[in-house]
Structure formats: C-alpha cells, structure tokens
Amino acid sequence: MKISKIINNNLVHFYDENNVDCIAMGRGLGFGKKIGDEFGAMMVEKVYRIEDPIRTKQFSTLVKDIPLAHLEVANMIIDYAKSSLNTKLSDNIYISLVDHIDFALERIEQGIPFENKLLYEIKHYYTSEYLVGLEALNIVERELKIKLPEDEAGYIAIHLVEAEVDCTKPNYVQDVMNIIQSVMNIIKYHFSLELNPDTLAYERLLVHLRYFAGRVINQEQASICDDKFVARMKNNFPEETECTEKIRKYLKQNYDYDVSDDELIYLSVHIHRVLMSHKK
Question: What integer pLDDT is reported at residue 163 of this predicted model?
Fold first, then answer.
C-alpha cells in the first residue's frame, strides 16, 4: 500500500485495490514518511473506507489534530455499537461521534460538564442506544482512566440514532421525541389512561412511533392498505380511530404533515393492543 497523503504521524491516505480513497490509522504510520512511500498491513490498526468523498475529506480534517488515544476509544465505541445494535450505521458516525468524544474529553479536562436535558426521554425512547452509551462510558474509563458523566451516554445515544437513520437534520432526535411524547399524551388523555411502559403492546407502539415520527419529519408516506381494508378497520376500531384523528389534526397543525389513512389504521391497531393489555 502506498501513501497518497499524510494527515499526521498516525494517519495516512491511501487508495485500495478498487481505487477507493481510504484512511489508515496506526501508531507512527505517517512518521518520517512521504507521499509514495509503502507501508505494511502489520502497522495498520484501523482502515476507514468512507464511501462519500465529502465525508472522507471532513473526517480527514477532523482527525488531524485529535489525539490518537481519543480516536482509538471512539473506534472501540463504534465497533461495540455496531455489534450490539445489530444495524447499519451511517459513515457519518465516524465524524459525529469522534468529534463528540474528543470534545467531551476536552470539556471534562477543563471542568466544563454539559447537562443533557433530554436524558430521561432518551433513556425511555431509545433504550438500546442509551445502553450502548453507558458501555461507551465504561470503555472511556477503562482505556483513558477518565470518568464521563451519565449525561454523555445520552449524547452518544443521539449520535447513534442519527447514524441509524443516516440523518443530518439538526435536532432530529429531539423532534422525534417531541412527536412521540405528544402522540402518547393524546392517547393518554383521549382514553383517560395511564400507559404502562412495561407491556409488550406499549413497546411495540413505541417502536412504531419512532419510525412514524421519522416519516413525519422527513415528510414521507407509507401506503400499503387498500380502501376496503381501511374502511373495515375503521369500523372495527371506532374509538381508536377517533383518537388517531386527533393525532392527524395535531401533526397537520404542528408539522404540516398529512397523515395517510394507512398510517392511522396501523396506529389504531397498536393503540387497540395497548388498550387490551390494560384489561388483562
């Protein structure tokens, strides 16, 4: 492998066998080297193959001045997240999370902690990502002997969620949580019911709302039911349908989103299951 560009003593650019611009990381990999020099695979700890050339350039610029130890810890966290969440993460995670970890460590060293005002909601609505965030704190403490506050687990979870949906819209996660909370409140007050988060029906509703809220924010529609099925389901679930009509009105007023009949039917089914779980 030949060096095409030197980022710093530990990071270099090279082109792989498919002529894709990659970044290799390894201690001393770029030290004393010049463009065109060869380097062996034994020296490489990590290879970044970021498909988008713009993101590759952003990552190259970002990591130029980041301590290698911080980058190594971020890699461990990303690898753990990929295996634990069992889902594809956008290449942007290498930019957003590496930057966040480095900044968080810098703030702690300066004695400037950040409070995460969304921590409760993140724990509740993005439990899997939050648990990865907690393990990320353990990784940082084990590798760097620095203890980050629990708030940082919430911030890490936000970056993971955004990478799961490959979304770079500002405040995406906060907007999703606001929609979920608002929909839950509409259901709660319509039926005068305290929702039980420990039931399977509630968990299924929450998962559905996460994806539904994403479609609202991205102004996307799901259309998978025929008219006869829609009419039959509305007839079977009249009270649930009345509740979802309130949800439709709320989303139109606040997000200028037209909820399709298909979406309302699936919401009605999930709401019905939640209601049935409370009767058991």
Answer: 92
Give the list of residues 6+ apart from residue 239 with CB closer than 8 angstroms, or none: 191
Among candidate residues 68, 89, 109, the one with its CA nearest the CA of residue 156: 89
Count of beta carbons in the 10 Å neighbourhood of residue 208: 17
Architecture of domain 172-279: Orthogonal Bundle (1.10)
Q: Vertex 176, ends 174 and 178: CA angle to 5°?
A: 70
Structure confidence by residue, pLDDT tens digits, 65-104: 999 999 999 999 999 999 999 888 998 999 999 999 999 9
Answer yes or no: CATH 3.30.230.80 is held by domain 68-164. no
pLDDT of residue 224: 59
CA–CA dist 84, 29 (Å, integer)? 30
Burial (CB count within 10 angstroms: exposed 0-12, middle 13-18, buried 19+), residue 110: exposed
pLDDT-flagged residues of the chain (< 50): none
H or E, element range at 4? strand 3-8
Which residues fall within 8 angstroms of residue 149, CB to CB, at 6 or more apart?
A: 113
The whole-angstrom separation of Cα 50 and Cα 45 is: 16
